[in-house]
């Protein structure tokens, strides 16, 4: 977070026109846009006469804290998490619109770094995807609203509802690392009163940078969404609320059960199942499919109980696997 | 605003799944959606391989106050103002995504009424347009983020930059009525300390319902956007910041000046020029065009000064026409 006392202007000190003049050049262009930012609306081309759309809010407090995340990380994460929802449909991300309500005391430099984070995420995770429009407002609560678009290039979308008994259950991306980072931050990134502390978070970045990065700047396997669709994935979703809960959503939508192999979930299956914000892709493939990209087998689709997630054939009690139980979510 | 003590549950008292189960059935369906809400993303069809997109934030405080607006009006206005930006491109609105950050103490009934307002606005102003996705979050500041989509049906978009010297300047919709409503609310809809007062605002609704409605539930001439495009409009924009400022934006983008006929601006040209939030359509047409729909002539495109707005040939000093000068915008 740039220091508000460092001398640069605050959001409340320059007009909207100057703010846009500073931010717009930092944003990535979208290859598919035929009319970009600056008019009442943008115009974006599609290859097959359809577009994929998803929207997500990030609110200071419940979703992020400026004492912990840098503005660059916020921009990165705002892009990455929305791109991941597009990828989970089997689509190629093409464009974003970004609306920000900034606090009056936010340094303009923070919004510039936010824009650079957005750009870096697009360029790194979904080349060609860019920002085609947005809105700037002022609020007591720093709030970020991103809407992301994708192109299916003629393929059918991969829904949550297509898994069939006997399909292989596979995942691409991390399981539990973002949650490990958040657990670390809640236990050691806070001051003695339990409030997020920038200094202690910085120390954690030095020591445990990998899990802290997984939380603040996730790298979802965006390209694997299209690869999964091309390989015949029968169902897919973005893991945002933890493998256990999200797998049960896929199972419910498909009218099947899912049996996870505990051995395939890494060294900490508790976190792998209960941890949220992985933004990995969970997909099901017909038996015998050569799994594409970074997908690895973690289980199998079973007939019953419908909507249930099992581990090695035994019922999984979601509450028994909740790594957050006993935490005070209100702290910080 | 439903009374929080009326017995219905608050947002903080029911889970996200139950909240969605109550709200989703109230939302209008989009005729163009092939995959609607419920998956990671929606899929929307286009008729010509392109989509129009615009996004807008409404933040409690700067943009609305629950002591004044009903939740139904918020839903209506959130839809109407975004549909107007789509219309200003010459496009037909097809779909919306809506993200809401509600305060924990907001009655669930308020969100239901918000959804009904959204639905009524879509059905009334842009039949066939519906909600294809969204997000629900919690915040200390009630915040609404809407992204709207439109279809050009094969026509080129009508940009701000196409006005030519000699074109007729025309407007469809009200001028200054929304600002008159806001002025009334700021002067007589507040308590003795200048804070928005629900009781006094209710009295104003009784007496001056037309201008109060123009502010809280505007009825932009959405269909006139397509009619203007079909009639050959050379430039168009949505009047959100006042005719004077928005006309100068169109003039600057087009490299021309605009000369307004004072007589054509109604009984209160000050409010017509300075008032914001009209969400009327300002467009330019080649000379001799039979003006379509509700468009009426209010001036002419001139060669110079570039970017300037004149009235009857005399330079317009925007500050001299600001009906808000002297107000304390922070009050309320």
TrEMBL record, chains A, B:
Keywords: ATP-binding, Kinase, Magnesium, Metal-binding, Nucleotide-binding, Thiamine biosynthesis, Transferase
Residues the entry annotates as binding Mg(2+) 3: 40, 85, 238
PurM-like C-terminal domain: residues covered: 164-269
Alphabetical list of SUPFAM superfamilies matching this protein: PurM C-terminal domain-like, PurM N-terminal domain-like
One GO biological process term: thiamine biosynthetic process
Function: Catalyzes the ATP-dependent phosphorylation of thiamine-monophosphate (TMP) to form thiamine-pyrophosphate (TPP), the active form of vitamin B1.
Similarity field: Belongs to the thiamine-monophosphate kinase family.
Listed name of the protein: Thiamine-monophosphate kinase
Gene designation per UniProt: thiL
């Amino acid at each position: 977070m740039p220091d508000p006392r460092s001398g640069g202007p605050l959001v409340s000190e320059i007009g909207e026109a100057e703010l846009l003049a500073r931010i717009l050049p930092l944003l990535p262009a979208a290859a598919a846009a035929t009319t970009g930012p600056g008019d009442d609306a943008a115009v974006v081309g599609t290859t097959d006469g359809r577009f994929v759309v998803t929207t997500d809010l990030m609110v200071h407090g419940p979703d992020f804290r400026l004492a912990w995340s840098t503005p660059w990380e916020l921009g990165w994460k705002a892009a990455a998490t929305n791109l991941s929802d597009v990828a989970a449909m089997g689509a190629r991300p093409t464009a974003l619109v970004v609306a920000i309500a900034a606090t009056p005391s936010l340094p303009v430099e923070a919004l510039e770094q936010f824009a650079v984070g957005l750009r870096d995420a697009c360029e790194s995770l979904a080349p060609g995807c860019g920002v085609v429009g947005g809105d700037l407002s002022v609020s007591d609560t720093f709030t970020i609203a991103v809407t992301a678009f994708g192109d299916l290039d003629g393929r059918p979308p991969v829904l949550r509802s297509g898994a069939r008994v006997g399909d292989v259950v596979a995942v691409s991306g991390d399981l539990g690392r973002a949650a490990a980072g958040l657990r670390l931050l809640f236990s050691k990134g806070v001051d003695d009163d339990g409030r997020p502390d920038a200094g202690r978070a910085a120390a954690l970045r030095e020591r445990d940078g990998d899990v802290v990065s997984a939380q603040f700047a996730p790298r979802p396997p965006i390209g694997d969404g299209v690869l999964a669709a091309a390989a015949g994935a029968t169902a897919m979703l973005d893991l945002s609320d933890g493998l256990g809960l999200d797998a049960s959503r896929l199972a419910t939508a498909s009218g099947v059960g899912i049996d996870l192999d505990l051995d395939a979930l890494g060294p900490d299956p508790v976190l792998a199942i209960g941890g949220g914000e992985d933004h990995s892709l969970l997909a099901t493939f017909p038996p015998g499919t050569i799994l594409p990209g970074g997908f690895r087998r973690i289980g199998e689709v079973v007939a019953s109980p419908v909507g249930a997630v099992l581990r090695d054939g035994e019922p999984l009690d979601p509450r028994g696997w909740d790594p957050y139980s006993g935490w005070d979510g209100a702290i910080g």
